[in-house]
Amino acid sequence: MTSRSISPLEESITHTPLLEVKNLSVTYTTQAGPIKAVDNVSFKINRGEVLGLAGESGCGKTTTALSIMRLHGENAKVEGKILFEGNDILQMNDDQLRRFRWKNVSMIPQGSMNSLDPVMTVGNQIIEAIRTHQNTSKHDANEITKRLLSAVAIHPSRAQNYPHEFSGGMKQRAVIAMALALEPHLVIADEPTTALDVVVQKQLLELLKQLREHLKISFLFVTHDLSVIGEIADKVAVMYAGKIAEIGDKDAVLNHPTHPYTEALVNSVPRVFGKRELLNSIPGNPPSGIWPAGCRFNPRCKYTFDLCRRTEPELESSKTGTMAACHLISHPNKST
Amino acid sequence: MTQEMHQTSETTKLVEVRNLKVHFHQRSAMLGKKITIHAVDDVTLTLKEGEVLGLVGESGSGKSTLARTIVKLHHPTSGQVLYGGQDVFKQNRREAKQFRRHVQMIFQDPYESLNPQANVYSAVLEPLIIHGLAPEGKAPREAKVAELLRTVGLDPASKMDRFPHELSGGERQRVAIARALSLDPDLLIADEPVSMLDVSIRLGILNLMLELKERLKLTYVFITHDLGVARYIATRIAVMYHGKIVEIAEPDELISHPLHHYTNLLLASIPGSELSENTTQSIEYTFNPAQPPAGCRFHPRCHAAKEKCQTTEPTLTEIRKGHFAACHYPVA
Fold first, then answer.
1. Which residues of A touch B199 (CB under 8 A)?
2. Which of A117, B151, B202, B313 has its CA 20 to 30 A from that of B127?
């Protein structure tokens, strides 16, 4: 694959972010009543940038990712704006949406190595994806497929194999090839390395880094694994209970966390290298659906004071340059 | 974590695995041909009382099969498993029942391993009833269950009547541990007990297991694919590669001086690792467990492989003090 040159038109709009999510809220109607899975989330992704979206299960990270593809189920009420190059994805009609998906934004869904069709060769599945979205001859689509497979380090001759003839890592790479088929500007990857062994994960992360370099693709990288984010992302957004707890440059968020939740999360991962020490676990469980009053992290936070139980904190600038939703920023004396 | 925490005065051998082979026979999906999967191939190891053996390796390396054979969930093709000096596959009924009491297993998925129709009280009491160890009468039984729940950090008053679906993943895993502890075991085999849990919950379970080990004088076999977790909990780590133990040492020794090139590759692959290892050469390699390569099984992926590696299988040898590796040309 060749690297994409930036046209004058693209140049003129480079000052707008590639993707801008503004005050996104997603509410699901359930038998137990409405559940606000995502609550007033905003972030931007610039061209060529990788944003890591981190958090535990039920924090709303996958719902956020699915909303960008407009794949959030029928029973979801979506508020806010999702602007792709300035156009609101949430206002698109079916036809616009069909042209937008895959061409502009593609997705590597969770557990996607199991999403390949077992009775179709891997090559034909990629060809089908290309020809569904773009008017390409079979011959050209075949050529593109071979190039894509090489790009993800699968020998083109393997195109005629069926998924069961691939290892887990190869299947995952084939799905990545498919997501790249129409040279999208943004790829949403939802836990793409989670089911993989560490050696394969490393290869995949190296591959994604290369693709990003050569094709200038932006990524929204959704994962619960902070070490993976540390490897690939430029910026990190940490979600907790449907909200962004902290967002900013990777180094600031992961190495000098401001939000007590980020801090606790970073410190609760047993490390392979460095000093071995007894770590303190975070008490309690992450909430699901029904959020605590005040700051949503307050029942588990070791710094909680009266204000945290009453008032929900807004995102504000921290000393490290991140944005964090914590009352300690404006009440620093309470942390001791 | 202090060094003393990991040292034990006890040196009694609790479990000995001798030349264990576990092979599975299957028909291949395509041609109906009979194939043999060499899940565990000639594994020998000793587990001392009070030890925590971390078993690491990628999926399909045989770590679960090895652990499950120790608890008699699989039958060996050849070789022996000795528990307290006695062959576990030659026990009579009474001995087998004793064994099932002393050796307990904790599974990866607490959503699957608990009966959805049994509340916490029944789940924890069940093993005691089966082994005829439950006290008589409602009040003493409740007291016994309450004591076990407190041991694993659950509040008996609020959790005793709950059903599994009303508990979080971490709480369910605690119930599974309480159940395993109810029979006062000596050996716990934990198969990826934290990998399904959220990051913020994992550490609570790991710390609980470390505390219980000290307090109740337990021995663990702890299976994990996460070297960080293995280092945190284990007193020794065994690295498995396709049915074989390729390296075994104390955690910090293994991590600071990996000898086998596979261990080195694993360590180099961890995000943020500063070790370098050429990982690209193995990118298209897929292992066929029905036809393991001749010689060293890792040689097709190993950049240090020489002729000898293709023909002669290396044996586990003590290369540094207390540090064994099966490699002809170990990492310098």
1. 56, 224-226, 265, 268-269
2. B202
